[in-house]
Amino acid sequence: MNAPAETRKFEAEVAQVLHLVTHSLYSHKEIFLRELISNASDACDKLRFESIAKPELLAGDGELRIDVSWDPDARTITVRDNGVGMSRDEVVANIGTIASSGTRRFLEAMSAEQKTDARLIGQFGVGFYSAFVVADRVTVLSRRADLPASEGVKWESDGKGEYSLEQVDLAERGTAVILHLKADEDEFLKPWTLKSLITRYSDHVAFPIRLPLEKDGKPGDEWETVNAASALWTKPKSEISDEDYQSFYKSLGHDFNDALAWTHNRVEGSQSFTTLLYIPAQPPFDLMMGGRDERKGLKLYIKRVFIMDAAEELLPNYLRFVRGVVDADDLPLNVSREILQQNRQLERIKAACVKRVLDLIEKLARDEPEKFTTFYKAFGNTLKEGIAEDATNRERIAKLLRFASTKGEGSAQSVSFDDYIGRMAVGQDTIWYITADSHAAAIGSPQLEAFKAKGIEVLLMSDRIDEWMLGSLNEYAGKKLKNVAKGELALDEADKKQQEEASKAAEPLLKKLKELLGDRVSDVRVSARLTDSPSCLALSDYEMAPHLARLLREAGHDMPESKPTLEINPQHTLLKRVEAEADLGKAGDLANLLLEQAEIAAGAPLPDPAAFVQRMNRVLLG
To answer: Comparing 328 with 74, which gets the higher pLDDT?
Structure first.
């Protein structure tokens, strides 16, 4: 006996999505057809995989397909598949409630956009709701392949906060989504419009997408397949045009933009597999937010049978921006995620994927500098994560990194480590750099003064990830990497002698400053870095840069307290004033201001901003 129909309310977040969809989305409305066909394709993929172990699920209907039809009288569009279908519980789980954080990220991205745009919807796993962009009512009929005809499900909603559920008899397995179009959406009732949208967005879906042939202005009884219905990656590269590659990318990556570049390879031998990997032109909204379990960058096929979204098993986290497919010939068909994580064959495929992606990025850097600049702007910081994550490819990744420089143009990140080494002075064996929380802070740092005076180039690193990354990059091409603000500078004999003489002459001043500053500093010493500024902070070789320590502390991490080392320029007028000042109160104000301006320049937080302001006012008023 069928269960009675019931009405339920949507989960709060789904209700928010539906409100946005029905009230705000107005561009790229045709996205709904791509999303519904994509869901239908996934359902066919799942059934094909399940039927390997349970052939009876196909029940004499082994030709998996997707049918799109229209009814001008009822003003409906129907997208029907004969895939795996859904049970009542699955309908509730997949449509009525969404547990994934993809919905939250979608809402955040949509609310952050000045122009709310339907094309975002597919990137967040909430594509079904795009049906409400063009429909004021949506009906879903579904029956799971392993359930009897009596356990079909009818789901229906107007998108205004509630939906109805009813048990119905359905003779055929699979899912039909029926869109009852809004009054002003008649363009989608024209077969040529539907055909052109399928060709544009879904041509390379691997299952036949059929439309009924038109007869007397209405759908007839005969059907035609309107998509290529082939796995693009299985074709020889010579038979695939750039337009084909781009079309496949857009359907695969839910992206309206062209891919920046791609690489398509077939490996033959004891282990045979095909890879088709794309680099997007723009990062998705959730690139830096998505957890490892939410990455959907690559799809794993075995002998053209879709197995799973397996981004983590096929590419390391720092290449999570890559989209594409991997089709292996000889992995076990009963593969599970646990087996994948321990599979040596897959490790070889993963290594090959990493190599192909790095080869492609290197090719852009070498042959297409404009595209490489686009890539680096979008994904440079993500790539830097590989320095810590991928020791095997650390040198290759480092070769691709670009930075601003004291000999570069403005703030442009255009200088590679190889560029730097090529400009090194004779006898220089160190790559010098500085980290800061902005380009302006880096280029204006007092620690650079001696290097500028000597004409030594310094790389300017101002991305938040740089300081962390450099913890795993101590050298490149046999050259040590060293922060100009850390440790004591290696001086030649003449400079060393001059430094010793300056330190000896400044001993009374150093003693006075140490007494005035007390436990605010661990040491005060004469600087070899300064030529124009009065003071700067010096860090130990293994001490974290103040700007990064501040960011981590603000993020809730416990950071060990450390007292800074203050370096001074005894020749500066302010230091001479401290030296000559007999009033200990005034001398104390000057000494503390020397420390505090050094902390500000280094990106460290002032421990007592109010006291700093009061000190500054006292000094200014004399």
So the answer is: 74
How many of the other CB atoms lie within 10 Å of CB of 227? 22
CA distance 447 to 532: 10
Whole-prediction pTM value? 0.73
Asked if the structure places residue 376 within a domain, the reply is no
Average pLDDT over residues 133-153: 94
Q: Is residue 380 part of a domain?
A: no
Res 103: pLDDT? 47
Residue 319's SS3 state is helix
The label of the residue with tokens 């990830």 reads 465
The Cα 310–Cα 306 span in angstroms is 11
- 52 and 14 co-located in one domain: yes
On whether both 313 and 334 belong to a single domain, the answer is yes
What is the distance between the alpha carbons of residues 373 and 361, in angstroms, rounded to a whole number? 11
Helix (H, G, I), strand (E, B) or coil at 222: strand
Last residue within a domain, chosen from 177, 193, 225: 225
- For 442-462, give the DSSP string: HHT-GGGHHHHHHT---EEE-
CATH code for the domain in which residue 308 is found: 3.30.230.80
**Mean pLDDT lowest among 137-151, 189-203, 546-560:** 546-560
Tokens of 180: 């009852």
Structural domain for 79, as ranges: 6-225
Per-residue confidence (pLDDT) for residue 437, from 0 to 100: 86
- Are 82 and 171 within 8 A, CB to CB? no
Q: What is the pLDDT of residue 101?
A: 37
| pLDDT > 50? residue 114 | no
420-430: buried (b, 16+ CB within 10 Å) or exposed (e) per residue? beeeeeeeeee
Average pLDDT over residues 276-300: 69
